[in-house]
Amino acid sequence: MSWLIEPLGPRHVRQQFRCGRGQLDEYIRRYAGQHERKHIGRTFVAVHPGETTVVGYYTLSASSVAFENMPEELRKKLPKYPLPVALIGKLAVDKTAQGRGLGQTLLVDALKRVARIADQMAILAVEVHAIDERATQFYQKYGFQQFHDHSSHLFLPLATFRSLDAP
């Protein structure tokens, strides 16, 4: 199955999006466009080639994490103040596309995008707040580690995925 992943725009049809999690459905329908306009977050959507109906999406924004939340082995090498990260705030796949690898495709696209951005601004890692245990397991499958503050608060160091953007 092939998808195009592109920045959210006015042409994208979002009202039919249903992933099974109400807050993720509501976000893409009601808030993603507002957050784009207010520069709060960027939303990237997956569509089938030649179509405009959103079948998946993720959001990216800048964030920071407390030094104290980093694992002990990483803290030794870091300054003792908030550390810059890229936040994948949301990642969801419509029920019509679930089980086909789109979640992985969206995650890899997000990581590649962050790797490119990291050439222009400091980013230590990608941060996620997994919505439930299933989402936590999804991210851990790709190497995300737990922060100290909560089991669903995860990160992936930039060094782990930087090579994804290699030509």
Question: How is this structure best described in words?
Answer:
It is built from 5 helices and 7 strands; from the N terminus they run βαββαβαβαββα. The protein is α+β, with helices and mostly antiparallel strands and 167 residues long. The protein has one domain: 3-Layer(aba) Sandwich (Aminopeptidase). Strands 1-2-3-4-5-7-6 form a 7-stranded mixed sheet, sandwiched between helices. The mean pLDDT is 92.
Tell me, rounded to a whole number, the average pLDDT: 92
Question: What is the succession of H and E elements?
Answer: EHEEHEHEHEEH
Main beta-sheet annotation: 7 strands, mixed
CATH level-3 fold name: Aminopeptidase
- The name of the CATH architecture is 3-Layer(aba) Sandwich
Rg, rounded, reads 16 Å
Strand tally is 7
Oligomer: single chain
Low-confidence stretches: none
CATH top level class name: Alpha Beta
**CATH superfamily placement:** Gcn5-related N-acetyltransferase (GNAT)
Instruction: Assess the beta-strand content as a share of residues.
Output: 25-35%
Supply the helix-strand structural class: alpha+beta
Biggest β-sheet: strands ordered side by side in the sheet: 1-2-3-4-5-7-6
